[in-house]
Amino acid sequence: xxxxxxxxxxxxxxxxxxxxxxxxxxxxxxxxxxxxxxxxxxxxxxxxxxxxxxxxxxxxxxxxxxxxxxxxxxxxxxxxxxxxxxxxxxxxxxxxxxxxxxxxxxxxxxxxxxxxxxxxxxxxxxxxxxxxxxxxxxxxxxxxxxxxxxxxxxxxxxxxxxxxxxxxxxxxxxxxxxxxxxxxxxxxxxxxxxxxxxxxxxxxxxxxxxxxxxxxxxxxxxxxxxxxxxxxxxxxxxxxxxxxxxxxxxxxxxxxxxxxxxxxxxxxxxxxxxxxxxxxxxxxxxxxxxxxxxxxxxxxxxxxxxxxxxxxxxxxxxxxxxxxxxxxxxxxxxxxxxxxxxxxxxxxxxxxxxxxxxxxxxxxxxxxxxxxxxxxxxxxxxxxxxxxxxxxxxxxxxxxxxxxxxxxxxxxxxxx
Length: 416
Prior knowledge:
Blueprint: H1 3-30, H2 35-56, H3 62-80, H4 82-92, H5 98-104, H6 110-121, H7 128-138, H8 144-151, H9 155-171, H10 181-203, H11 214-227, H12 236-249, H13 275-287, H14 296-307, H15 314-328, H16 332-346, H17 348-358, H18 364-374, H19 379-389, H20 396-415
């Protein structure tokens, strides 16, 4: 394998893992008013990696190489750019110096910087939707398309929210600084939501080539663990969210088989589940127990817990939890998941009636659920519904699952 091929395989993964982290570290010093500078430095670093590694080969420690080059580029910027002398230097000179900034630019500070940036961005002066867009773009490395899919919002609306939010932060002299416990508590719900969406993009990726992005899942998990290390953020809701992420992460390896195909939950090999993560989920769920607080994360974590058990009566409990969850926060996905649980308890025919009440005609999961429910009731209609689901955008792995369902139904009918 030549240098070029190796670089093409490695760099996309490194970019997904490190771009947002490196940008967050730099933004901690430049401030969001100069985020474009941070993004340019990191982008130039990856461009240089592409050129250098293709001709000379990949270094022994690629991540360290990236941080070293970014550090050097930052130093060059400090020396040669008038923007630093006029706007930035005066802002940071009271608390630090150039050497401090350069020393802090390394991979060990990246997670701390990401978490600090999330809290800084979740400033009450910015509307909630703007906070989420900023956090997902700057800290999670989401594209406009990914933010649009995560928030179920048009791309043009996302662009406008980002533009307004950045202007509001510039006007407020944005800076990253230590927050009071009251400020941390005020911003924590938005931080939870950001990490929740961050994890979901890894678990149910909108990337057409990757249905699962483990690096995003583990990054969200690591950042959430950090919240439990601080007394001000180690709340019942934080522990409930962490329990949920542990339960979901425990099944990551079981969701893709050796052929790279997506494996549905009821077909997964239980032996492939990570029992250590399930145990951690159990631990954090116990830590989340608080009779005064039952958040959506408590309910979703409890649902995830039941999915890890082999109790045949679990669907009654799961349905009860979905009945509560849909009242706390309605979403089409929650409604469809509730209907699936309803069908498990009351049968496919009752489930079909419940599903059709939803009328989610612009949702592919609606057709997939109905296809599943009609499989034993009316196989021909099930095939038609699965074909309708294929009309919606989805990853190749997800398409293959639906095609496989159609092939199985067609084969079964031909045998009759």
